[in-house]
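[Q] Does anyone have a clean C-alpha cell version of this?
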Amino acid sequence: MIYAIVGLGIMGGSVAKAIRSNIIGHDDKDGKIFALDKNNESLFAALTSGIIDRAFTPSETKEMLSQADMIFVCLYPTATLEFFREHKADFKNGAIITDISGVKHELAAAFEEIKPANAHLILGHPMAGGEKEGFAASKGEYFLNHNYILIKPKDGYENEAAVEKFRKIIRGMGFTRITEVDADTHDNKIGFTSQLCHVVASAMVESAGDPEITSFGGGSFEDLTRIAMINAPLWTELFLANREKLVAHIENFESQLDNLKKLIETQDANGLQSLLSDVREKRIAMQKN
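[A] Here you go.
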C-alpha cells in the first residue's frame, strides 16, 4: 500500500513517522510513504532519514495522488477544503482520503461537493500533537494511546469496508480509541477541550505582565501555559472557524471565573470550599471516562 501525506508539518510528519514505525514492516510489510510539501527542507529531512520513500512538490500533486492508496491531507482547514475542491478528480480509484482539520462543519457542509466519485473520503481528527510546529517537531509517539475522531456523515458511511480499513490503520498508528460523531458534536466538544484551553493559556500569558514570573514557577504555570507556545496562523483560523461555539464556551468559563472571584472577594470560605470539593469530584469522574 502507498500512504501519501499532504503537508509535512508537525502533524503530517507525525503521521508519516507513526506509519513508518508501527505499520510498514508489520501489518504492511511492503508499504511505502510518499509526501508532498512546499518546504523542500522538510521533504529532504524526511527522505534522508528514511521516514518517506519519495518526495513530491506541489507541481507534482496529481502524480502523487494518482498512485496513493491512503491519503492524509494535513493542511489548515481552509486549505484542506480548497485542496479537496481542486483535486477531486485526481485520486486513484478506490483510494481512502482523510483530513486532520480541527474544525469540521465547513467540510461536512461541503461533503457532497468535495467527495470524489471514485474514492472514499472520511473526515477525521487525530486528538494528539505538540505545541511546536514543523517536521522537526513531529513524533510518531504523539499518537500512542490517544483518541481519534471520525466524522460520520448524516446519512451514514457510503462504504463500511473502506471505513473499517481506515480504522485498522488508525489503530496501527497507535491510537487506542476511535470516537465517531457528527460534525456539529465534534466542533462543540473540541471547542471546549482544545480551543478554549488554548484561549485560557493565551490569556494567562498575556495577563502575566512580568516576563520573569516563571522564576517563581513550581509547575502549575508551566502545565497550564505549555500550549500557549502557539502556531498563531493556525489557531487564528481555528478560533474564527469555530467562533460561535468557542465564544459560548468562553462566556460560560467567564461566568465560572466570576463566581470564583466573588467567593474569594467576599471571603466566603464555606462556599469556596464547597465549590472546590465539587470541582475535585467532577475532575475525578472525568478522569475515569
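[Q] Thanks! Anything notable?
[A] The CA atoms of residues 188 and 245 lie 6 Å apart.
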